[in-house]
Amino acid sequence: MGRLQKCCCCASTKTGTLITAVLGIILSIITIVLVWVVNRHEISFRTFIFAEEFDKKLAALDIPRIILTINLCFTILICFLLIVAVHKRRSWLMLPWVVLGIVLAIGLLISVLHTAITYYLDDQDHVILATCILVGGLFYLCLYLYLWAVVFSHYLDVRDEEERGRYTKAPYKR
What we know:
This protein is an all-alpha fold. The protein has one domain (11-162). 74% of the residues lie in helices and 2% in strands. The protein is built from 5 helices and 2 strands. It has helices at 13-37, 52-60, 63-88, 91-121, 127-164, and strands at residues 6-7, 11-12. A two-stranded antiparallel sheet has the order 1-2. A hairpin with a 3-residue loop joins strand 1 (6-7) and strand 2. Helix 3 (63-88) runs antiparallel to helix 4 (91-121). The longest helix has 38 residues, at 127-164. The radius of gyration is 20 Å and the shape is elongated. InterPro entries: DUF4728, MARVEL_domain_protein_3.
């Protein structure tokens, strides 16, 4: 995979990485607030693992909301870790975000496809909604993967710098 040299054609990968971390923190906080402020009947949390009756019991006890909140708190922690890693130039501190990022991208793809297909197969006519979810979700996935590539490129740059030493060795072996 080729490395990106710039983020959005004007900023360095370091700046893009910091922006990505800050966006992750802001979006996680907004999501936590929305999950707990929005009325239960307006948002449906389902696990799709258990029987429908057990799933309703879990939702009544706010278990899915609690799990989502814990996951978002870990996302905030990993984004803070990414900010520290950029400032201290430590690649091993960036690694949790890089791994989490690709796992979240896979989860996002599955979620977008599942939601869109569910609406397409619904007895009611939700074709427009399903198409909007599919197009919007895939656009968001592409944007997310681009930001992940920016962070990954910066991770590789920092890792290479650590391997050869900051200023002690020449970048080329002659």
